Amino acid sequence: MTKDATKPTTTITRRALLQSAAWSAVAAVNPAGAEAPYPARPVTWVIPFAPGGATGRLSLLICDRLTRRLGQPFILDHRPGAGGSVATRSVANAAPDGYTILATSTANIINASAGAADADGSGDLVPVAGMARMPLLLLVNKELSVKTLPEFLAYARANPGKLSVGSAGPGTVQLLSAELFRTLGGISWSVVHYRGSGPALTDLASGHIHAMFDNTASATDLLRSGKIRALAVSTRERAEAFPNLPPVADVLPAFETSGFYGVAAPRATPQAVVDLLNREINAALADPAIAREFAEIGATPITGDSQVYASTYRAEVMRWRKLVATQASAKN
Q1: SS3 call for 282
Q2: 293, 151 Cβ separation under 8 angstroms
Q3: Which residues are within 8 A (CB) of 116 and not within 5 positions of it... i.e. 6 or more apart?
Q4: How many CA atoms within 13 Å lie on the side-chain side of 307?
Q5: Which of 190, 237, 185, 233 has the alpha carbon at shortest distance from 210?
Q6: Could you read off the pLDDT tens digit of each residue along the chain, which spans 332 residues?
Q7: CA distance 131 to 119
Q8: Is the peptide bond prior to 39 cis by the omega test (within 30 degrees of 0)?
Q9: What is the 3-state secondary structure (H, E, C) of 185-219?
Q10: Could you give the CA distance from residue 102 to residue 95 in angstroms, rounded to a whole number?
Q11: pTM for the whole thing?
């Protein structure tokens, strides 16, 4: 019997073709006669912070694509606490079978740069793939009577101890950025720690805190709503997504930070599984829809195989080691 070439049939065929490319890669992970190819069951994708932050937003985009490509759910599991260390340790202690993986953030980089990778479990992880690098924004509540970066710095200096600044938790890029700004600017303020940037942004918008540094991915929606105001970017160059915002370095030349996000797995995870995940994450980053989303939030994809990403990760650790040293020397 001949079937009509209807539109629904074409849609199903396209979906089948999309998954066939993924399954051809999966087949290499499992030898002939194995019970089932990887992944044969849902994969837990652990996020070290509360919902609403950059790590979660990037992970949602990637996991949606992986779920469609590989035919198994990639489930987001938020495990906030101790600046990401709770989640990192839990993944480091998980079975190295590819079914529990970690969305890493700059907090892991900072811990490694300070020699604390063993303390939070990062030393027992293997780099899988990059996700994105992005600038941070200096954000203030809309009711604060400053409109520019120089005005904010002058206000902070004239009102020592009166400003409260939000942090996504100890050892996070949000806290380190605020501390570097405070040190280089010669100012004092109180820091309020949260279990991720999502809750901190909520309090910033409602006026419970005055300011914070946060990644462009986290802050974009609140900025569009007009509930918070951005004064500057943390990178040395202006961000394409926020071309009207000056770099903090324009007034504090030694200042430069950025967010760095990737994926890691327990150390003994089979290389074939690592390579499969790496290929699929890179395929997701090449998706035009994800590329558009990244551009809107000011994120730059981090691509390359697992060895290339491991080298990029090490270079980022060295960069942060220098930044931490800059902060320490400025204090003395």
Answers
A1: helix
A2: no
A3: 171
A4: 2
A5: 190
A6: 433 433 333 334 444 444 444 444 444 455 444 457 899 999 999 999 889 888 999 999 999 999 999 999 999 999 998 878 889 999 999 999 999 999 998 888 887 777 655 555 567 899 999 999 999 999 999 999 999 999 999 999 999 999 999 998 888 899 989 999 999 999 999 999 998 889 999 999 999 999 999 998 888 889 989 999 999 999 999 998 899 999 999 999 989 999 999 999 999 999 999 999 999 999 999 999 999 999 988 899 999 999 999 999 988 888 888 877 766 665 65
A7: 24
A8: yes
A9: HCCCCEEEECCCHHHHHHHHHHCCCCEEEEEHHHH
A10: 13
A11: 0.79
Within 10 A of 6 (CB to CB), how many other CB atoms are there? 9
Query: Looking up tokens 């720690």, which residue turns up?
Result: 193
Phi, psi (deg, nearest 5) at residue 184: -70, -30
Q: How far apart are CA 196 and CA 231, in angstroms?
A: 21
| CB 256 within 8 Å of CB 135 | no
Helix axis angle for 271-285 and 288-296, nearest 10°, is: 70
Domains of the chain: 37-134+258-326 (3.40.190.150), 139-257 (3.40.190.10)
69: its two tokens:
């490509």
